[in-house]
Amino acid sequence: MSSSSSSLLALPTEFAAKIGLRALQSNLISDFLVRIGTRTLLGTRLKEIYKSTGEEQQNELMRFAQSLKEMPIAVNTEDANTQHYEVPSEFFKLVLGKHLKYSSALFPKPTTTLDEGEEAMLELYCERAQLEDGQAVLDLGCGWGSLSLFLAQKYPQSQVTGVSNSETQKAFIDGEAQKRGLTNLTIITCDINSFEAGKRFNRVLSIEMFEHLKNYQKLLKKVASWMEPNGLLFIHIFTHKLAAYHFENKDETDWMTRNFFSGGTMPADTLLLYFQDDVSIENHWKVNGKNYAKTSEEWLKKMDANLKRIRTIFAATYGEKEVTKWIVNWRTFFIAVAELFAYNDGEEWGGDSFRPRPLGIFVILMLSRSTMPYLIDEASLLSLYWSLGLL
Fold first, then answer.
1. Coiled-coil segments, which residues (predicted)?
2. Residue 299 belongs to a domain with what CATH number?
């Protein structure tokens, strides 16, 4: 089919998307239809990213990894602030759990609440990052301070530094730290492209920030230089189990990109394995996507329970005429996230590569290569690998 024919065929789809978007933002479409539409778009996305052979799939992943190395560390950073992080903290207090964790919680039991799920995931980070009291810890992309505040309180002898690109987030975290009497927490506002730590840390943690980044190679080179010789880097990101792709604003169907994820990246499960120039991956865990789905469903419930107060917040933030539009946008965002991670029972992996698979989550523990400058022979390397349980 010629490119002109493809363009003509795309016109009805784009037109329908425009009409549908207007109806959606006027609050004329039910949640049921939004969910059906989201699942349909996810199915379309999977058809786009799956290749016909394993060889083609791997070649595409390697092409994507190479392309990231030619990009800045992050793009559209101001858009991310506008879309998420400069929204008043009062809104997030009404929809998130008590720790204001704007990322996946963990639900080990059906009866686990959102507050309990937030704490369970934070505790899991501590365990897997091998955190101990007295360490110097850097929290890259600290959000509303869920991890930074948690660590400062849990490890009173540690010095915790959090980095955010949002003045709103810094003001909120500083205020919370003061209320709690925490004197071991410092929050820095800086674009990740230009951030320089200026000191070394025993542990560096990054929770759901790499999805906003592009050039992992450049950033990991920086991070390795900020780590003590025996330091560990812990990264928690959401992924697709096979393919990596950019969030791009191509047409009206790219609603998520335009409103919530400009400059974003969906990493593949194995993508970071190709960025080990300055770090060495030591361990790798997975968390089923249904945990994130339930997290977002809980956010939606809390938003619906607090709509009257949220209307007042949105009127002050977006203007009175935009209130309905942004209530719909945020509700649709939470529904879309829930449907995304619940897809195919939270696994997105099957006997054949075309089966629909949800976007999952994985966690990586990294060891700085600076721990191995003295290892110059094979016997020493084998001894290290044995001690790490890799052999």
1. none
2. 3.40.50.150
